[in-house]
Structures are given as C-alpha cells and as structure tokens.
Amino acid sequence: MTYNVGYIVGSLSRDSINRRLALALRRLAPAELDLVEIPIDALPLYNRDHDASYPPSAQEFKDAIASADALLLVTPEYNRSIPGVLKNAIDWASRPRGANALDGKPAAMIGASPGSISTALAQQHLKTILAYSDMPVMGQPEAYIQFTQGLIDAEGTVTVPSTAQFLSDYMTAFLAHVDRHHLPGPGASR
Ligand code: FNR
Fold first, then answer.
1. Helices (DSSP H) in the chain: which residue ranges?
2. Looking at ligand 1, which atom is closest to the CA of residue 81?
3. Residues 92, 61 contacting (CB under 8 angstroms)
C-alpha cells in the first residue's frame, strides 16, 4: 500500500533549514510513503467568524489535510514553542467544531535548530496540540536535529552518513506507525 503523506514545514523562511530537512526526508522515505507538501504561506490569520464559509486558501488547505492519509510536521522552535504560523494552520484545519480534518490522522513530528537541544520543547507543545486534535502521534523514535553548517544541502542531500541513516530509520518507523493507525478512506491508494 502507498500512503499519501502531507507534510507541513513550520517556517516561511526562504532559506529554512527545516525545509531542507523535509526535502531530505522525502528522499529518504520508504517508497510506500508519497510525501507532498501542504503549504501554509497563503493562510490568513484564523478567525472563527469565517467558520461558516472558509476563505478559499484556508478551504484548499483544509481539503489537502482531509485527503492525506497521514501528516508529517517539520518545524522549527520559536521561543521554546512552535511558530505562530504552524499553530495558525492547525487552528484552520481543526475547525469548525465537529469538522476537524486532523481527527484520527496518524502523525509524526521532527525539527531542526542550531541549538543543542534542537526543537525538543517545541515538539512537547506540539504533542499536546495534536493529542487534543485526536491524532495518533508517533512517540518513538523522537527526532531533534541539531543543524550544523552544511548538514543538509539545498537539494535535501544529507552530508553526514550517520544522520542520513537516522533519518531513513525514522521514516521507516513512521511507515510502521501509519500502517498501524491509518483510517480507511479516500486518501490511500491500494
Ligand atoms: C529562533 N530560534 C530558536 N532556536 C531554538 O532552538 N529554540 C528557540 O526557542 C528559538 N527561538 C527562535 C525564535 C525566533 C523568532 C527565531 C526567528 C528563531 C532559532 C531557530 O532555530 C533558527 O532561526 C532556525 O534556522 C529556524 O528554522 P528555519 O526557519 O530555518 O527552518
């Protein structure tokens, strides 16, 4: 079975190291995981006044989430939490009440930072948010990537073999997680 995995990069930066990490994961993923980015850069700020009629960019985003078999969140840490742009995207996907597109989707998270504890604290917050959103989130392995100069190039090639192996193993574990938790639905191609 091949799974349609939507990935979200929690950074809008042109030179994002997390985008490089996402490209690397796309290259290293098992063939059963077809990774496609779900962009968040066109989303307006969430406002519940639009719950009855989402703006087109938000509806498109929510539809992409709904049609994915699983989600991979690749995010920086901002001020020891997740970036506001990522929280905003999650808020759009989760509403209106009773129409949460995240409900039941298997998910995993990973992130890069130059810091020695990387994105550990952001991921702790993200786990709380995704658990509340009723998503089965992969617990292990955890992946906190300390980004050093040149670790991943602009095309997503990982230059350190042990890191490439770790990321490849991480994606293999994610496949097992998706196999275990995915819901039968429109996204999966059999
Ligand atoms: C950061 N950075 C950062 N790093 C970290 O490890 N913990 C943190 O809490 C923060 N906080 C933070 C806040 C803000 C507003 C910025 C702009 C940056 C540094 C961050 O890890 C670094 O800029 C990364 O390059 C961001 O990831 P992208 O955007 O390159 O993917």
1. 17-28, 56-67, 84-94, 120-132, 161-181
2. 9
3. yes
SS3 140: coil
Predicted local distance difference test score (pLDDT) of residue 189 = 40
* Closest atom of ligand 1 to CA, residue 118: 6
What residues of the chain score a pLDDT lower than 70? 186-190
Q: Which atom of ligand 1 lies nearest, measured to the CA of 15? A: 30
Ligand 1 binding pocket includes 76 (Cβ within 6 Å): yes
pTM over 0.90: yes
Tokens of 25: 């994961």
Please name each of the domains of the chain with its CATH number. 3-181 (3.40.50.360)
Task: Report yes or no: 181 and 136 within 8 Å, Cβ to Cβ.
Answer: yes
Residues 6+ apart with CB under 8 A from 61: 38, 39, 40, 42, 43, 89, 92, 93
* Residue with CA closest to ligand 1 atom 15: 78
**Among protein residues, the one whose CA lies closest to atom 7 of ligand 1:** 77
Q: What is the pLDDT of residue 186?
A: 53
ipTM: 0.99
Cβ atoms of 126 and 132 within 8 Å: the answer is no
Q: Is 81 in the pocket of ligand 1 (CB under 6 A)?
A: no
The per-residue pLDDT for 185 is 72
